[in-house]
Structures are given as C-alpha cells and as structure tokens.
C-alpha cells in the first residue's frame, strides 16, 4: 500500500505532540523584523516574535516559504514513492499554496502530490491537517482524505477580535474601511472569514464590544455543542484571558477539546497586540 504523508505550513496551530504522533511535515514561512529575517519556528519562537514585534519600528513582513525549500521538502517526501497531501493557509492571506504548486511542477511529481487551500489558518487549518493525518494512518485513500477535508471545510468557523487596528491598517489587509473606522476612538473590529475571504463583520468601541463578542461566540458554541468536538483559542499576547474563555467553553460541554495557544507570527503580524480568535468546525 502506498504511504500518504501530510504537509502544511507554519501558520498552522498544532501541538508538538500532534506533529510528532502523526508525522506531519511543517514548511516554515519567513518573517523580517527591522531588516533581519527569521525562519518561523526555527530561529524565532512565537513568544519572542511578539516581543520583537512590539519593539519594532516598522510592521514586520511575512513571506511564504521559498520555492527552493518547497522543492527540497517535496522531493524528500516523495522519494520513496509516497503520495503527499499539502494543506495550507488561505490563498487570500498568503502565496504559500501557489509557491507549493510551482515547487510540485519543478520537482516533476504532480501525480504524487495534492494541494488543498484550507481557506483559513491557525487551528482551523490544524483541524483539517489532523483529520487528514489520522485518515492517512488509518489507511484511507487520497480521494477519501480529500473528501473528508472538503467536508470539514464546509463547517469551519473563525471569529476574530482585533483590538488595535494599527497593524491591519499598515498591512493593508482590509483596505479603506478599516482606515475610516480607525479614526474613531478605541474602535475594535470582529473579523470573519467565509469562503476564505477575510472581512469585517462588526465594529464597536472598547472592552464592552469585546465582551459582547465573547458572549455571542459562546452562545454559538452552546447552540452547536453536540456537533463540535474541538475548539481552538489563539491569541497574540493575552494568555490568562484566553484560559478563562476556555473554562467557559468547558462549562458548556466538558467533552469539547479546547486548545489555547499563542498564534503564529504570520497571524500576529496583521492582527496586532491584544487580538485573539476562536476557531472550530461544526460537524
């Protein structure tokens, strides 16, 4: 039986134990801060990145993995005849999946590699990757794994709270709309990402708006609690508050697995300090 290997990028939210247990290959993105370039997860940690981001003069710049690195990884994974499924962050956020496609062509292994746009990032991407990796270990075919991932994508949800719009504006992620609301005092925005497209869902002022956001998301989880097995809570720099949010989800349904972890530099760069997201898939 042909082995199937799973590949993803470093914006994904997975624990070291998950990566090791399911033999998932992570291809790192790069980050440049004040003229110095780092390889995500290799020579800079998530916590160190946030510290440097807060101290940096300019907005950090993020880049997809080089095509050369992708070629090397893909050649290594396919050398023994294995099939590879690559699941990457949304194309609307990064050119990573396009770089992977070019690398597959250069490596000449198009018949061995399938690439999937997760249409999200972070833990939502991670849950797709985990599903694929578990299926692969269970002996599922490439076609069965793809069908499973595509089904999960239909039920995935991202709810993000951005409390400081500075990085979003500098990065140009939301265009003129964000620039206009940012001129108001203490404006925060709630972001959703339907069909892989990031957009403002609501905007409001101060901590009261963030509290209402939390209550609404908890209400959504309550309504769907029997169809949600996993929730990811990812943050830039507010771990204590996020643990409290996780406790409230466990009160709704103790059987829901809640993973609370700091987000990747790729997300933190654009979301800015204080931002956090709640991600899950409704089955």
UniProtKB/TrEMBL annotation:
Keywords: Lipid-binding. The keyword RNA-binding does not apply. The keyword Iron-sulfur does not apply. GO terms for molecular function: lipid binding. PROSITE patterns: DEGV. It comes from the Bacteria. PANTHER family: DEGV DOMAIN-CONTAINING PROTEIN DR_1986-RELATED, DEGV DOMAIN-CONTAINING PROTEIN SPR1019. This is DegV family protein. The lineage of its organism: Bacteria, Bacillati, Bacillota, Bacilli, Lactobacillales.
């Amino acid at each position: 039986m042909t082995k199937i290997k799973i590949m993803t990028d470093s914006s994904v939210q997975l624990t070291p134990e998950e990566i090791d247990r399911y033999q998932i290959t992570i291809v790192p993105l790069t980050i440049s801060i004040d003229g110095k370039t780092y390889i995500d997860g290799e020579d800079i940690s998530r916590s160190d990145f946030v510290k440097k981001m807060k101290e940096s003069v300019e907005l950090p710049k993020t880049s997809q993995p080089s095509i050369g690195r992708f070629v090397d990884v893909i050649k290594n994974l396919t050398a023994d005849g294995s099939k590879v499924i690559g699941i990457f962050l949304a194309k609307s956020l990064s050119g990573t999946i396009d770089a992977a496609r070019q690398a597959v062509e250069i490596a000449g292994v198009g018949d061995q590699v399938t690439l999937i746009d997760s249409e999200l990032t972070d833990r939502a991407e991670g849950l797709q990757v985990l599903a694929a990796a578990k299926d692969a270990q269970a002996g599922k075919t490439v076609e069965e794994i793809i069908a499973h991932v595509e089904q999960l994508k239909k039920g995935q949800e991202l709810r993000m709270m951005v409390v400081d719009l500075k990085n979003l504006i500098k990065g140009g992620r939301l265009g003129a709309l964000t620039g206009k609301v940012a001129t108001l005092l203490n404006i925060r925005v709630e972001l959703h990402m339907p069909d892989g497209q990031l957009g403002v869902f609501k905007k409001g002022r101060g901590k009261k708006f963030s509290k209402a956001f939390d209550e609404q998301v908890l209400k959504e989880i309550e309504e769907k609690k029997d169809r949600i097995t996993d929730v990811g809570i990812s943050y830039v720099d507010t771990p204590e508050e996020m643990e409290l949010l996780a406790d409230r989800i466990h009160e709704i349904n103790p059987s829901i697995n809640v993973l609370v972890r700091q987000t990747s530099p790729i997300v933190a760069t654009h979301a800015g300090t204080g931002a956090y997201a709640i991600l899950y898939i409704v089955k």
